[in-house]
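Hi F.,

I've been meaning to write this up properly since the lab meeting, where we talked about keeping a consistent format for the predictions we share between groups. The idea is simple: the sequence comes first, exactly as it goes in, then the structure tokens exactly as they come out, then a line or two of notes. No screenshots and no reformatting. I'm using this chain as the first example so we have something concrete to point to.
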Amino acid sequence: MPLYEYQCEKCGSAYEVLHLTKEMAEDVVCPECHSRRHKRLMSAASVAAGSSGTDPRSCEGDSCCGGACEIE
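Output, unedited:
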């Protein structure tokens, strides 16, 4: 489900909307003034990157790595 950013053309409030599959932009309502007049804003893309630099499939020490190595 995509997350879109909107700005209300009536009150200027900016808000995010998590769209369901059948939901359209016309269904979006401003949470502040309840207006249906808005414009969709351009969002910056987000990229998830690993922070540890280690292979998540390797289990080190006495702790479990969450089942990635398939060892039971």
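Notes:
The mean pLDDT is 74.
Residues 3-41 form one domain.

If this format works for you, I'll send the rest the same way.

G.
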